[in-house]
Design a protein that fits this description.
Layout lengths: L5 H17 L4 H14 L3 H12 L6 H14 L3 H14 L4 H13 L3 H15 L8 H16 L6 H9 L6 H4 L2 H4 L7 H23 L4 E5 L2 H10 L10 H17 L5 E5 L2 H10 L9 H11 L4 E2 L24
Parallel strand pairs: 1-2
Antiparallel strand pairs: 2-3
This protein binds zinc ion (ZN) (2 copies).
């Protein structure tokens, strides 16, 4: 389902670029995602062109686009341009954590550890306030900072302790970021070494994938009237949706299991019959085909239509029951 080979990533990027011409108002999330697929296919020059195109069209988050462009440029040898962009972002001091994390990780990836640490610290100083609760994005800044500081063999400070406390993975952060593990090249056991490297890659890769795609993995939610109309028009879809209540339960269950398996950035998109039919027409497929539902959800998410999941326990449930999430689908 998800693209895997370079050819699949390129095909997906091209599909997203086509979608962007149909929905120009949603071009920013669509082209950012297309660029991420091009990067994954190692088509870095084409990705650069998309970032430039976005930057010339007054994007909502220019610092994030510039940060992604800097990281991409550096990957294919344009170090000087990348550094210029990074200095510009640092001077502009954006209040969104994402561009900071992208540039600090770009510095880290090119072994500029002292600069990377400085960059993470600048960001934390600006964005981590005692008065505000940490968000997943500010926690990620502290986690990245912790990793780089461990590599530099710096002693723990208060923010490192916060990073340790907030970390929820199966392996404690200090163990995960232990430079002896990261640089466990003295190990005599190649299998052990490979396992360690795989573990670190998984953590880093997961974060990077979430960052280069600031787009939720979204599940499709049909309000009750829409679902009734959908199933009346396309009875074949009843295999997917035995009842509205079962549909709602399935959405919550799937999101919980995605979260439990470490998928970040989850969301819900809301379907409507006219927009689904328009999507089917644009894909030259029948709306009656169940396989179209996931593609419809992906496209809505790529257009920036997803609502982040989970809601906070006290805010209204995503199912629109008006009950607080914790007393509705968020109940244990
Ligand atoms: Zn620690
Ligand atoms: Zn609910």
């Amino acid at each position: 389902m998800r693209p895997d080979t370079p050819a699949e990533h390129i095909a997906e990027a091209e599909r997203l670029i086509r979608t962007a011409t149909r929905y120009p108002e949603d071009q920013e999330p669509l082209l950012l995602q297309a660029a991420a697929h091009l990067e994954l296919a190692d088509e870095r020059e084409r990705a650069s062109t998309l970032y430039d195109q976005l930057l010339s069209s007054d994007p909502a988050d220019p610092h994030l686009v510039k940060a992604l462009q800097a990281a991409n440029l550096w990957e294919y040898g344009h170090e000087a341009e990348a550094r210029t962009l990074i200095s510009g972002i640092r001077a502009a001091a954006p209040t969104d954590p994402a561009p900071w994390e992208v540039i600090a990780e770009a510095l880290e990836a090119h072994d500029e550890l002292a600069d990377s640490e400085e960059c993470f610290t600048e960001a934390a100083t600006l964005l981590v306030k005692e008065s505000d609760p940490l968000t997943p994005a500010t926690t990620a800044l502290l986690t990245g900072r912790h990793r780089v500081r461990r590599l530099l063999a710096l002693p723990h400070d208060e923010w490192d302790m916060v990073a340790d406390t907030r970390h929820t993975g199966p392996v404690p952060l200090d163990e995960l970021h232990d430079p002896k593990r990261i640089w466990a090249l003295g190990s005599n056991d190649p299998a052990e070494l490979r396992a360690e490297i795989a573990r670190l890659r998984a953590e880093l890769g997961d974060r990077r994938a979430a960052l280069s795609r600031p787009f939720p993995v979204a599940l499709l939610h049909w309000p009750v009237e829409e679902l009734t109309e959908l199933l009346t028009a396309y009875p074949t879809l009843a295999t997917e949706y035995p009842s509205h209540a079962a549909h709602l339960t399935a959405v919550e269950t799937s999101l919980r299991s995605l979260a439990a398996s470490g998928t970040h950035n989850l969301g819900i998109v809301t379907g409507s019959v006219p927009s689904y039919e328009a999507f089917a027409a644009s894909e030259k497929t029948s709306p009656a085909s169940p396989s179209l539902l996931a593609e419809y959800a992906t496209t809505l998410a790529a257009r920036g239509k997803a609502t982040p999941w989970p809601p906070s326990p006290t805010s209204p449930c995503w199912c629109t029951s008006t009950k607080p999430y914790a007393q509705c689908h968020g109940a244990p």
